[in-house]
């Protein structure tokens, strides 16, 4: 019986590429599972990216991207008695208006016990608030982190091209998106921050 013919170099390369691709996919899946081990954040990740067939939520969908560009800065704060380290993973991004974008914040619980926090946000200058749209974010939802747990928190957003047509906003080139974590919405209300926070739009629905 004749021995099976040896695979050609091209076939060997294709097999190797399939193995490498499969391994990379497993690594990516593992990283996603670890980064979003917190159930609410995993659901949010699915909403932001469409992963696992999850429908994205929000008040509106971005229109066609325009030539006008703005820089979006990301700020992060925490209530004094909340033992978390909370920061934006990128200080800023420059985006085209009408273009969907995703940015990430990161939170770490520095306490030796589980700690729950709730975030509020605001957008400045206030006059651009009507043109800044979040299609998904982690605000207004309780997030509980285990001792030492670190998580990534995504926010999806776009800037309405109409910002370039409004005489009050067309010269604005920088927008700041700020998130502040409190222990609870009651704490935020007592501090006065809840009254000046952005509207509860684009937050992932509680389940």
Automatic annotation (TrEMBL):
Chief place where the protein resides: membrane
A GO molecular function held by the record: copper ion binding
An annotated GO BP: respiratory chain complex IV assembly
Protein's membrane topology: Single-pass type II membrane protein
Family annotation (SUPFAM superfamilies): Ctag/Cox11 (SSF110111)
Homology family: Belongs to the COX11/CtaG family.
Biological role stated in the UniProt entry: Exerts its effect at some terminal stage of cytochrome c oxidase synthesis, probably by being involved in the insertion of the copper B into subunit I.
Full protein name: Cytochrome c oxidase assembly protein CtaG
Gene source species: Roseomonas acroporae
Upper taxonomic lineage: Bacteria, Pseudomonadati, Pseudomonadota, Alphaproteobacteria, Acetobacterales
């Amino acid at each position: 019986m004749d021995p099976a013919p040896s695979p050609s170099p091209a076939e060997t390369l294709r097999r190797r590429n399939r193995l490498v691709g499969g391994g990379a996919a497993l690594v990516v899946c593992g990283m996603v599972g670890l980064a979003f081990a917190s159930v609410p954040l995993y659901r949010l990740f699915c909403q932001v990216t469409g992963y696992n067939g999850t429908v994205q939520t929000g008040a509106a969908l971005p229109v066609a991207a325009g030539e006008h560009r703005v820089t979006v800065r990301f700020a992060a704060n925490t209530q004094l008695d909340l033992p978390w380290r909370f920061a934006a993973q990128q200080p800023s991004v420059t985006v085209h208006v009408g273009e969907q974008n995703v940015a990430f914040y990161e939170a770490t619980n520095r306490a030796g016990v589980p700690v729950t926090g709730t975030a509020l946000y605001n957008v400045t200058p206030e006059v651009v608030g009507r043109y800044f749209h979040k299609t998904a974010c982690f605000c207004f939802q309780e997030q509980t982190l285990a001792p030492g747990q670190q998580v990534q928190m995504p926010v999806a957003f776009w800037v309405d091209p109409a910002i370039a047509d409004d005489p009050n906003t067309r010269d604005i080139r920088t927008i700041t998106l700020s998130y502040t974590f409190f222990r609870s919405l009651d704490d935020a209300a007592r501090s006065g921050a809840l009254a000046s926070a952005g509207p509860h739009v684009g937050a992932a629905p509680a389940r």
